[in-house]
Amino acid sequence: MINPDLSDKFKSQFPVISPSMLKCDFGNLHREIELLEMAEAPALHWDVMDGNFVPNLSYGALLIERIRPLTQMFFDAHLMISNPEKYIEDYINAGCDSITIHIEAAPNPKDLLEHLAQSRVLPGLAISPETSLNLIEPYLEYCGLVLVMSVEPGFGGQSFIKSSLQKIRQLKAMISDDTILSVDGGIGMETIAETASAGANYFVVGSAIFNQTDYSTAVRELAQKARSDSASFT
Ligand code: DX5
Ligand code: ZN
Fold it and tell me: How confident is the model at residue 13 (pLDDT cuts 50, 70, 90)?
């Protein structure tokens, strides 16, 4: 059983809007977190990039560990790094609630996913746009969360890749109802309803929150759009 308490925490809150901290104002990180708490975002998404798996660098476990005591919000780490097995313990110790690794970086992730579950961390597996679902299928039963990248990983502010919708639909039919289905990249008011309709229930959002002056309005409107308009696409 994969940490039922963590999965249950979200069920009552679907659709979850999880701000991608890659796009926040790092000069005012504590204030940004306070504003997102006031906006009632249930989770924070931490994009970790190593300049190797993706052509960009961001931040690592040390930063997450220092931020951890500042808030009770769910910490969702997205590791866009090569050799995640080398570093995973650092992210567990940093206090992440969920840790998502990429199938392209860990082609046989069973042991890592099981280790996360044993460590009381929600195990997540991400898939990049060009990667076939066949590669993750054998490992879905070990996942508490599956993340569909709807842009090429590495940068915020890119346009949503339309073919991700079909991938989300197919994946929805492959996973259990208990598995969180996350979508990440190019999610905003124009794209969130379609992705919700395709089956996503957890939405990572960078630009569409941080480019707004009022995060509360952005988070509320995105959640409303995911909830209400999704029916019109089914
Ligand atoms: C991209 C990251 C995303 C990204 C989302 O590699 O995984 O989380 O920052 O940003 P937007 O919403 O701007 O596409
Ligand atoms: Zn991400």
Answer: confident
